[in-house]
TrEMBL record:
<feature type="domain" description="RNA polymerase sigma factor 70 region 4 type 2">
    <location>
        <begin position="118"/>
        <end position="169"/>
    </location>
</feature>
<dbReference type="Pfam" id="PF04542">
    <property type="entry name" value="Sigma70_r2"/>
</dbReference>
<dbReference type="InterPro" id="IPR013324">
    <property type="entry name" value="RNA_pol_sigma_r3/r4-like"/>
</dbReference>
<comment type="similarity">
    <text>Belongs to the sigma-70 factor family. ECF subfamily.</text>
</comment>
<dbReference type="InterPro" id="IPR036388">
    <property type="entry name" value="WH-like_DNA-bd_sf"/>
</dbReference>
<dbReference type="InterPro" id="IPR007627">
    <property type="entry name" value="RNA_pol_sigma70_r2"/>
</dbReference>
<keyword id="KW-0731">Sigma factor</keyword>
<dbReference type="InterPro" id="IPR013249">
    <property type="entry name" value="RNA_pol_sigma70_r4_t2"/>
</dbReference>
<dbReference type="InterPro" id="IPR013325">
    <property type="entry name" value="RNA_pol_sigma_r2"/>
</dbReference>
<keyword id="KW-0805">Transcription regulation</keyword>
<dbReference type="Pfam" id="PF08281">
    <property type="entry name" value="Sigma70_r4_2"/>
</dbReference>
<keyword id="KW-0804">Transcription</keyword>
<dbReference type="InterPro" id="IPR039425">
    <property type="entry name" value="RNA_pol_sigma-70-like"/>
</dbReference>
<protein>
    <submittedName>
        <fullName>Sigma-70 family RNA polymerase sigma factor</fullName>
    </submittedName>
</protein>
<dbReference type="InterPro" id="IPR014284">
    <property type="entry name" value="RNA_pol_sigma-70_dom"/>
</dbReference>
<feature type="domain" description="RNA polymerase sigma-70 region 2">
    <location>
        <begin position="23"/>
        <end position="89"/>
    </location>
</feature>
Length: 182
C-alpha cells in the first residue's frame, strides 16, 4: 500500500478529520465515477458516494490491507449504489435458467468499429438487472460468485443476467457494426 495512504488511514482511525478530508479528496473523483455508472442522476451518485465514504470511515477498523484501500472503498460505494437501486424496488429474481445455454462469458469480442463509448451507451439501454450485472462483471471485474454475494442472487442467475444482457448488447451494437461496414 502507498505509504501516504497508509499514514492517512492510521490518522483517520484515530479520528483525525484533516486526514479524513485528505483521504476523501484523494478518492472522491474516482468514487463519484463509480457511483455514476450505477445511478444516472448526478445528485444520487454524489449522495451514494458520500454515504459510502461515511460508512468507510465508520468501519475503517474493518479495513484489511490485503486489498488496496481504493478497492475496499469502491466495494462500499457500489454496495451503497445497489442499496439505492433496491430501494427503488428493482428486483433481482431467480430466473428460469433451464432453457438457456450458458457459453463462455469471456468472448466479449466487439467489432473494432464499435467504440467504447458505443458499448457504454448500449449498456445504459439494458434493463436494470442486466445492466447492473454487466457493469459489475465487465467494468468492475467481479466474478459470478462475487456478484451473487453483492446482489444476493444465485450464481446461475448472475450468469443468466450476464448472458441475456450480452445478447441484448450485441443486438444494440449490430446496427453500428453494419453502418461501419458500408
Amino acid at each position: 500500500m502507498h505509504t501516504q495512504t497508509e499514514s492517512l488511514i492510521k490518522a483517520c482511525k484515530k479520528g483525525n478529520q484533516i486526514a479524513q478530508m485528505q483521504l476523501y479528496d484523494t478518492y472522491c473523483n474516482a468514487m463519484f465515477t463509480v457511483a455514476s455508472r450505477y445511478l444516472n442522476n448526478e445528485e444520487d451518485a454524489k449522495d451514494a458516494m458520500q454515504e459510502g465514504f461515511l460508512k468507510a470511515f465508520v468501519n475503517l477498523s474493518n479495513y484489511k490491507p490485503e486489498a488496496t484501500f481504493g478497492a475496499w472503498l469502491k466495494r462500499i460505494v457500489i454496495n451503497q449504489c445497489l442499496d439505492v437501486l433496491k430501494k427503488r424496488q428493482i428486483e433481482f429474481f431467480d430466473v428460469e435458467v433451464s432453457e438457456l445455454q450458458i457459453t463462455n462469458e469471456d468472448d466479449w469480442n466487439f467489432d473494432t468499429n464499435v467504440s467504447k463509448k458505443d458499448i457504454l451507451k448500449a449498456i445504459e439501454q439494458l434493463n436494470e438487472k442486466h445492466k447492473i450485472v454487466i457493469k459489475l462483471y465487465l467494468i468492475e471485474g467481479y466474478d459470478h460468485a462475487e456478484i451473487s454475494e453483492i446482489l444476493e442472487i444465485p450464481i446461475k442467475t448472475s450468469r443468466t443476467h450476464l448472458r441475456r444482457g450480452k445478447l441484448k448488447l450485441q443486438e444494440f451494437l449490430k446496427p453500428k457494426y453494419n453502418e461501419a461496414r458500408y
